[in-house]
Amino acid sequence: MAEYIYKAATVSGQTIEGQMEGSNEKAIVQNLHALGYIPIRVVSKEEKAGLSFSSLLPQKVKVKNLLAFTQELSTLISAGLPLDRSLEILGELTENRKLREVVKNLQGRIEGGNSLAESLSYHPQIFSKLFVNMVKAGEAGGFLETILVRLTLYLQSTKAIKDYLISVLIYPLILTAVSAISVTILVAFVIPRFARIFADMGQALPLPTQIMLAISHGFKDYWWGGLGLLFLLYAGLKLYTRDEERKEHWDRFKLSWPGLGLLFKKIEVARFSRTLGTLLQSGVAILPALGLVKEISQNLAVAKAINHVHDRLREGKGVARALKEAEVFPALAIHMIGVGEETGRLNEMLAKVAESYEENIQNSVKRLVALLEPLIILVMGAVVGFIVISMLLAIFSIHEIPF
Fold first, then answer.
1. Alpha-helical regions (H) of 113-190
2. Strand partners, 6
3. Quick one: which of 45, 47, 102 has its CA closest to 69?
4. Taking a C-beta distance cutoff of 8 angstroms, is the pair 135, 152 a contact?
5. pLDDT of residue 403
6. pLDDT digits 0-9 by tens, 103-112
7. What range defines the domain where residue 18 resides?
8. Residue 393 placed within a domain
9. Is 59 helix (H, G, I), strand (E, B) or coil?
10. What is the pTM of this model?
11. H or E element: which one contains 267?
């Protein structure tokens, strides 16, 4: 049994906090329901301690904060509480300071007569156009609770993919950083000490040692040039992609990279399918929905393809046919979307496409990391091995010095 801290609301809208023992969060939620309370948040004591510490740091609203807000607002509204009272409760309970201020602002606008969608639109840095338009559709259709549930599921899937990518890439990044630091210390500090010893002896050094010493001197004397070159390359790429046409060419070029290009395509397909499917299920018409999907695309070539689909739909053509003409999306995704159109189940098929490609992305990343880890070890081992061998050859050559 573990100790959990909960926050809940009564039927009348009063908030309560307390502690309860249970086997897991689900058991605590069931116990609160049995007591006639509306569970808002249940966290373990350890997690609560982490949240308390993080609240002291500079904060920005992340996906997890937006997810918690959407989920808790959905819970309160589903329990029958008015929107303004639900926002008042969330304004008291939200851990993130910035989001707490935004929630209080939303409450004030709601009480002033604005709709929830209108109130959300005043904070575009937190609530995307996708979020606002889905809420707008829910309010217009009278099914805001359903929309908030779908938004919660959408944010959960987005967060799950992001968290998975971060967790998988942590080890290779740490391995690369540690290896790079080790090699830098050897080249910048250790080898120059040996260089002075060899110089005092006046002995001709083996070629590998000469190469290593030259690299060491170059790194020590001109490291700033390397950093400057990297900065110039980065600034040049930013300047090059500032023009929309050149950025489209660059984004299209990224989709053709060996190995990574296919992964980028899968990510864009999953995002397109998940977002469009969620919007259509929420009652947003397909043409406005495509406009919203285009705006959240991070690849301009894909955004142009979505715009092409939008234009072809206005001419009476189907989504699958228009996607095929754009020549960006994989054939499998186009085929599945075409089947969804033919059977009149496009929403369901888009969800299946998203699930399929999200699983495919995880498998692709797992295989890529499995290949990357030994490659990093091999490369760094070769670099360190070359350094050690070049130093040993120089040390062995000392025995050839006449006394």
1. 116-120, 129-141, 144-185
2. 18, 42
3. 102
4. no
5. 41
6. 999 999 999 9
7. 1-57
8. no
9. coil
10. 0.72
11. helix 260-281
3-state DSSP assignment of residue 328? coil
Rg of the Cα atoms in the chain: 29
Write out the two tokens for 237.
């790429």
Give a yes or no: residue 327 inside a domain.
Answer: no
Domain count, the chain: 1
Please choose, from the candidates 306, 270, 60, the residue with its C-alpha nearest in 3D space to the C-alpha of residue 160. Answer: 270
In a domain, 19, yes or no: yes
Classify residue 21: in a domain, yes or no: yes
Tell me if 84 sits within 8 A of 110, measured CB to CB.
yes
The pLDDT tens digits of the residues spanning 348-377 come to 899 999 999 988 988 888 888 888 888 888
Beta-bridge mates of residue 3? 21
Beta bridge partners of 118: none
pLDDT of residue 211: 85
Among 64, 62, 65, 17, residue whose Cα is nearest residue 40: 17
Report the pLDDT value the prediction gives residue 103, as an integer from 0 to 100: 92
Strand partners, 19: 5
Q: What is the pLDDT of residue 57?
A: 47
38-72 exposure pattern, b = at least 16 Cβ within 10 A, e = fewer: bbbbbbbeeebeeeeeeeeeeeebeeebbbbbbbb
pLDDT above 80 (res 7): no
Q: What is the pLDDT of residue 53?
A: 46
* Cβ atoms within 10 Å of 90's Cβ, excluding its own: 24
Q: What are the start-end ranges of the H helices in 15-143?
A: 25-34, 45-54, 63-78, 83-93, 97-111, 116-120, 129-141
Residue 238's identity, in one-letter code, is: K
